[in-house]
Amino acid sequence: MVANRALYFRRRLANAVFIFLSVGAALFGLLWLTFILGGLLVDGISALSPTLFTEITPPPGSKGGLANAIGGSVLMSVIAVAAGTPIGIFAGTYLAEYGRHGRLSFVVRFVNDILLSAPSIVIGLFIYELLVVRMGHFSGWAGAAALTVIVIPVVLRTTENMLLLVPDGLREAATALGAPQNFVIKSVTWKAARAGIITGVLLAVARISGETAPLLFTALGNSGWNWNVAEGMNEPMASLPGVIYAFATGPYQDQHDLAWAGALLITTTVLALSILARILDNQKRT
Amino acid sequence: MRFRLMALAAALAVLAIFAGVIMSLVVGAMPAMKAFGFGFITTEAWSPTRERFGALAPIYGTLITSLIAMIIAVPVGIGIAIFLTDLCPRPLRRPIGIAVELLAGIPSIIYGIWGFFVFAPWFQLHVQEPVALAMADVPVLGTLFGGVTFGIGTFTAGLILSIMILPFISAVTRDVLETVPSVLKEASYGLGATSWEVMWKVCLPYCQTGVVGGAMLALGRALGETMAVTFVIGNAHRIAPSLFAPGTSISAAIANEFTEATSELYRSALIELGLLLFVITFIVLTCAQLMLRRMERSKGH
Shortest CB distance from B102 goes to which of A21, A153, A271? Predict the structure, then answer.
């Protein structure tokens, strides 16, 4: 009996230590979230002002805003989403509807998962070699192209997953009514998976709105703004993350403040998008 | 038929992008590969003015920061996942799970600017200096954690990375822990096992492959992470004995120097660094995919 009691005590102790450690781990994770968001709010809110949206980035030592950076980020993101979403949706549709178990699908799925997690700076180098070297200069187009390459895998993955959730009975019922396969996909499965696919697009927007590394040597940056958008896309273009990087690493306090304001803008956008995506996703499941 | 061809073309476009990435990196790296050969990855010297480039310091930086990140994030991430699946009071489960996942959505540049302005000065004052002082006379630890402290450096970069990959590890681990059949758990509890014993001897062995796969996925992220590291690693092209000293990583070197690289050879050396990074992450991510796939398949049966 004595030996038994010692054993019980040891097991109970081990259990208590284990519970303590995993609660500690959860608190540790939450602590960092609070620290980061707290620091961001403190330094970001004090730097917010209406001129952020109306004035362009200032030269060192003077005040200004982030209008050109916001404009560049929005423009390049819109183009990237417009170009990347159809490719992602069609490729995801191929994987889920046409070649579900085929050899090609296996390879595409594998390659897509690699692209999804590949270092984004490598995507920047790729577009640099592909576009910047050939065109001879940095440009908004190159930045948008780099972001497109990041959008495609995100949209593809969610589209495929969402289409696979659509019950086969729906497809069979539509086909039994005599609908050709492309009609079944367009009017039945896409419709059934619509909320999920939109979620994927939102996640892709959230992902690219903070991407910095692939823009550094594609869009480069620009301290001005060209209202002739077609011309502007052909020139180096400012982006919000790019300005944050340049200003935060510089020595000027005014620029540090702008960097913090920009960081707060990006984080708010990203968090809002991810929460929106989550709400959509939940609505669809219930 | 046209519709099907469009879908096929889009799927092939993904393959084309992948092939394009590899080809453009190889073409861009060619001049440096010809000039330095295999010596590129075994020499430390990095001198743009003399056009001598060796990748050892950035490779070391990438590996050591990822190692530090993994040592911290794997146990903590698994701990969070266990907390969320087994210990957390039910009403708190969703909000805490969401909060941890939100950490994953924060862009890396935010971690960078926060690490640079907020974390590094605090870390230097309250952790690095006391630790360096206390360790000064201890043989091995004195070298690893000694020297002049700057706040930024290899160790700080590893720490920030660990916070970044934490959510990936806990999300994947939580997902695979939820695949453990409740019959298994109930049987072990019925035999009188404690929560710890059920977790350690039943649940974790059951989904070992998935947990390791999730950790590899996180490692892939850590290896290629750019902006957060660039801000806090200090950008010094050398291998310092102290972990507190500034260093560099592959991605940080590219991000920092690419637009300043004026000569063809300099730029090519940086692209070769990118190629190395891509190859390393490709191998790690492939292992992660294979493991997670195996997990998914066994789940189906």
Answer: A271
* C-alpha distances in Å from residue A166, one per residue of A197, A276, B10, B233: 12, 22, 21, 47
Cα–Cα separations (whole angstroms), residue A237 to A215, B41, B132, B252: 9, 35, 44, 22
A186 Cα to chain B: minimum distance (Å)? 10
Query: pLDDT class for B300, splitting at 50, 70, 90?
Result: low
Residue in A43, A115, A271 closest to B17 by CB: A115
Q: What is the pLDDT of residue A33?
A: 81
Name the pairing type of β-strands B46-47 and B52-53.
antiparallel
pTM of the model: 0.92
SS3 B52: strand
Q: Which helix (H) or strand (E) holds B46?
A: strand B46-47
Alpha-carbon torsion (B262, B61, B22, A233), positive or negative: negative
CB half-sphere exposure, A186, CA atoms < 13 A:
10
Closest residue by Cα to residue A208 from A78, A43, A107: A78
Q: Give the C-alpha separation, A183 to B232, whole Å.
A: 53
Q: Are B167 and B104 in contact (CB under 8 A)?
A: yes
Across the range B269-294, mean pLDDT stands at 93
pLDDT band at A60 (very low <50, low <70, confident <90, very high): confident
Q: Tokens standing for B89?
A: 């009071």
> pLDDT tens digit string along A135-181?
999 999 999 999 999 999 999 999 999 999 999 999 999 999 999 99
Q: Taking CA atoms, what residue in A is nearest to B250?
A: A121
Give the span between the Cα atoms of B287 and A281, in whole angstroms: 30
Question: Does B107 contact A212 at a Cβ distance shorter than 8 Å?
Answer: yes
* Residue partners of A264: CB distance under 8 A and separation at least 6: A40, A41, A43, A44, A45, A47, A48
Interface check B212 vs A, CB under 8 A = no
B283 touches chain A (CB under 8 A): no
CA atoms within 13 A on the CB side of B90: 0
Is residue B139 within 8 Å of residue B167, measured between CB atoms? no
Q: How far off is chain A from B24, nearest CA to CA, in Å?
A: 6
Contact B31, A129 (CB under 8 A): no
| Residue B301 confidence (pLDDT) | 45
- Residues B121, B205 contacting (CB under 8 angstroms): no
Reported ipTM: the value is 0.91
Kindly determine whether residue B277 and residue A121, on different chains, have CB atoms separated by under 8 Å. Answer: yes
